[in-house]
Amino acid sequence: MYAFVEGEIIDKGEFHVVIRPDGMGLGLVINVAPRTGVELTPKGGTARLYTSYQVKETSQDLFGFASTAERDLFEALLKISGVGGKTALAILDLPRDRIVEAIAAGDSAVLRQVQGVGAKTAGRIVLELRDRFAEELMEEWADTISAESRSRIAPVAITSESGNAFVEAIEALAELGYQRADARELTRKARTTIGDDAPSEELVRYVLQHAG
Fold first, then answer.
1. pTM of the full structure
2. CA 146, 149, 151, 155: dihedral to nearest 10 degrees?
3. Does the domain formed by 76-137 have CATH 1.10.150.20?
């Protein structure tokens, strides 16, 4: 219903802001994650929040986010059993890149640190969103393979029980969200291009850089 709301910040709380849209004589209460509220300008300033309008039998709530990507993640979380608006906002109080990396890596422990998220809920989040955000993370890594990214990739391959680089690379890609059949085919192509003796971390890095 509302793609975004832009206007003057009339009031701010830990979990909400009140914005008066430009040229309108009303104030909208918008639920936000605490981190988002802190990042906004003080009262009297102008802000734009990308919004998600949620309607239930007993309530109508407007949620606001600093970017469309955060809003998309919020709405994806709401589709998971056991995750409501307040819980989703609590998860989004973590930096978005940390959330996405945790989901893509299957690391539910990061999500269990959020108040209101138990082991079962964290497991469902990882299970239902892993493929989507693993793919997104692969695209980001393919664009910019930084030293930090490489340090995350290498341990996955090195710690594999198998000593075979080909198998290690497949296992690493599977842990990062690839389907095993796709991981096997992509690793085979990588080995053909860069050499049969390439170590597993080089095979994984090549796949991340070149896989479509």
1. 0.62
2. -150
3. yes
